[in-house]
Amino acid sequence: MRYPVIVNYFMTHKAQIIKKSKNEYITYSGFSTSYVWMLKEGVVKSSLILKDGREFNVSYLQQGEIVSLLREDNIAEPLAPYNVRVETDCAYLYQVNRIEFWQDVYKDQELQREVYRFYRKELNDAILKIRDFSMSGKKEALYTILLRFTRKFGVPFQEGILIDFVITNEELAKFTGISTRNSVNRMLHQLREQDIIEIIQSKIYIKNIQYLEENVVK
To answer: Measuring CA to CA, which residue among 168, 159, 152 is closest to residue 210?
Structure first.
């Protein structure tokens, strides 16, 4: 568990539990929100809409991860930084009022330290993503995303790692900034021909993770 103190706060402070169905949005980028959420069950996706109308995926979030904690702490209803959409059949979230949350943060030094650790981790992740994509070509960007998904959804399978979550080629394109899913199709096809990956029940099985690791920006 990455942030046990924050998780414990949501579980013990009478947070409201809300249910959202697949493809339902929790927040919209640029719209005000007065809550902080932590994911209790399911998977959600955060994304941005670019100026040209294309969607750029930021991350998938799982159980125990904080869905919305960014923006100024002293504003009752700040603008949400991302669209956040449910990707599983349903998702359950802990929901607390953000003003009450921050008041509790300032009263509890242990909670405060962990919240700041969360911010530092978010900043470090953002820096690494900028490095990865600014210095990568299309193939390297795809390999980087596949490696990230092995860390988030990966389970041991045969001689490699299965990404135990269905991710479409269109969604992969949105994570990498590649313009079309057809480009992703071609690159995945090449990896299959090289026996690097295999598609099993619409899930990506990484047979040779070392190949991907050797061909990304370090």
So the answer is: 159
